[in-house]
Amino acid sequence: MGNGGHGISIGAGPGKILPGFNVLNCTIGRPADGEGNIISGNKLDGIYIGGDEFGPCNITIQNNLIGTNETVTDMIPNGRNGIELDGTRPIMIGGPAPHEGNYIGGNGLSGIVLTGVAEFYTDNVGIHGNSIGVGAQQTYIGNNLDEVTIDADSRNNTVGEPDPDPNDDQFPGNVIAYNERSGVAVIGNLTRQNPIRGNYIYSNGGLGIDLGADGPSIHHDPNLAEGPNLWLHAPIFTAIQIVNGDTVVDATLDALTNAPFTVDFFANKSCDPLGYGEGKFPLFSQSVTYDQHDNIHIVIPGEHHNLSMTTTDLFGNTSEISTCGVPYIVNTTNDLPDDNPGDGVAKTGNLLPGGRLECSLRAAIMEANTTTDSQTILFDIPGAAPFSIVLTNFLPPLTAPAAIDATSQQGYAFGHPVVKVDGVNLG
Ligand SMILES: [Ca+2]
Ligand SMILES: [Ca+2]
Ligand SMILES: [Ca+2]
Fold first, then answer.
1. What is d(CA 389, CA 81) in angstroms, rounded to the nearest whole number?
2. Which one of the ligands is nearest to 347 CA?
């Protein structure tokens, strides 16, 4: 292997169809033994497909090793992306049946990029059954940027699907792990209706799913009718309890409408240090309509821990992955202590207008420090930014594995913090 340009190039990009690959029937690799390709060590992309003239061709890309060695135990990087689709439709990368999926890893940029320019955006791509960033025996073969990047107005592309039968040999999801940045990034104001469901997403350097490639997007307004996957918010857990051997979940969402949404739950061996669950084991899906208070109440059969979730709307927009478990939400600039550390609730004992329990940053840290579980501390202080928390004495050091995310505060813009912790009185 090792071409000076792309490994396989079709269409408007540099290079031509290379001999030796079965692209005339619009397949790059087939599921049978020995019918996949090793597409590694190329200077540019492993596979580049550009233009729209191949649209009717229904190209399938199956059973290939892209950026790896023959035994999928090491990386032989392509210089750019593993697969770049640039204004193409429709294409299937992998598939649910055995040996239809590709191994895609070790590439200099992303594992898979869907991109394009005006009118020639990439749509109707299916990405199923692939191992992206993960080699044989769980080997680390992460890609250098995002595993899957969906950009430039691309729409109606499907990354995984819930598995209708976990007991058969079909698996329509993807394994997406060990990447330097996020698992799946959705970028661009008009990039939408890209469902991301039923995947095993874990151990990525950034978020499991990152809308906007800007970290947690909870501060983005989901009511603007634009933004990557419409900035759909993940629900926020308000309570998780084990009742009679089942897991009872309460959650809330800033929903624009009360149309049905689907919530997908994932279990994780442990919470991600960023505080946002990735989604390692797809567990349970349910269609829900939020009540007038935007609350949902769902019983998941069996006892599960370190839960995270996504929501997907009727049009196929999927949110980022929620926090791992119930977050503490700071809703005041007061600096009062927790009134009962260890009771599982971060609260000062005061009530806010509307009856919410007041939760200070100090109370959240104090409550988090009473457990060894990972905790996420978010901010939702009412009123106009900026906010200043004037300390009455030093905050206790965090002893729990907790993530404090002040980008969750409404009013935050990328790189412009709006919550200030002010030690002016501490001398
Ligand atoms: Ca199955
Ligand atoms: Ca984001
Ligand atoms: Ca407490």
1. 45
2. 3
What distance in angstroms lies between residue 424's CA and the mean position of ligand 2's atoms?
33
Position 32, amino acid: A
Looking at residue 374, its pLDDT comes to 82
* Domains of the chain and any CATH numbers: 1-198 (no CATH), 235-326 (2.60.40.10), 327-427 (no CATH)
What residue type is 333 in one-letter code?
T
Peptide bond into 166 cis (omega under 30): no
Ligand closest to CA 161: 1
**Interval 2-38: pLDDT, tens:** 566 676 666 533 333 333 333 445 788 889 888 899 9
pLDDT digits (tens, 9 = 90+) for 232-278: 999 999 999 999 999 999 998 876 666 789 999 999 988 888 888 79
Which bound ligand lies closest to the C-alpha atom of 163?
Answer: 1
pTM above 0.85, yes or no: yes
Ligand 1 centroid to 64 CA: how many Å? 21
Q: Which of the ligands is closest to the CA of residue 167?
A: 1
How far, in Å, is the centroid of ligand 3 from the Cα of 340?
4
* Distance of CA 322 from the midpoint of ligand 2 (Å): 11
- CA-based nearest residue to 39, from 49, 54, 51: 49
